[in-house]
Amino acid sequence: MTQSASTTVADLKEGEKVSGTFLCKRKSASSDRNGRQFLSLVLSDYTGEVEALLWERVDEQAAEFEAEDPVTVAGKVMLFQGRRQLHLRKIRKAGADERPVEELHPASSLDITQVLEDVTSLLLGMTPGPLRHLAQAYLGDEPLMARLVRAPAARSIHHAHTGGLLEHTLSVMRLTAAICGHYSQALPGLLNRDLCLMGAFLHDLGKVEEISAEGGFNYTTPGRLLGHLLLGLRELDQKIASQPDFPQDLADHLRHLLAAHHGRLEHGSPKLPMTAEALVLHRADELDSSLASLRDLFRQTGEGEWTAYQPHMERYFFKGGESGEGGGSSL
Hints:
This protein has a 5-stranded mixed β-barrel. It is elongated, with a radius of gyration of 22 Å. 40% of the residues lie in helices and 17% in strands. By secondary structure, the protein is α/β, with parallel strands linked by helices.
């Protein structure tokens, strides 16, 4: 058995004793079937997140910290249903000098400055006209863009880290561009590439207001009341209002792209995709978020061939063999 004075989430290994400082993203009290109380937690740092359980002196220790607090813990790494868990003995609110706060926030592994440059290049590469003018209005909104480079794409599931929204946005833009490139030959005249690119840029932009980039990536009040679809549509309407003579039919098509990008009514879309571009955007968004989620899941699973059951996808996943890019866990 190994001993670690302090470690990152990514370095946690089964059987290891751990003491270290993490961000408490979620905290809830529960009890097992025998009525024994325990504390269920999600802890994170810049390398990822891990589930944690506390069974000892639950009421006493739970009173010492809240969700979003940095916490110092002591415990052991266990493997449960194919994923790592921390079984804690001690937990308390960490002091300001115990670990730099920037190390407690998951962050993109990419160069975010370069990601923003790539997004900008795709937008400014569109055909001169209303869509490119609209893109310039967004790019010229400095407060909005400053929030975009820090925003996570989600609280969990996929791209749940600082810069994750911009990373996801670029990936979906590139996917839609590739799809349009393919079908320009296979089915010429079907897709409007600029409309797909603009929809990909806008589809999750409401998340800069929906989810706080600080603390544990919690929902804001506007995020809880409206959600990112309505927040994105509100921002779109404001930007369109600043563009003289913006075509109404084009404005409605953009609104539809945002409203339909979840693809299904039960997944929060008020409309099903009803245009070719809306279908492309939904599929590209779904694929990118799913693969990013699998990448993180495979990294957290350990050495097993199968993941734990994933309720949001309603299945187990087989990690497979060598991918040719460094192993089956490197999606």
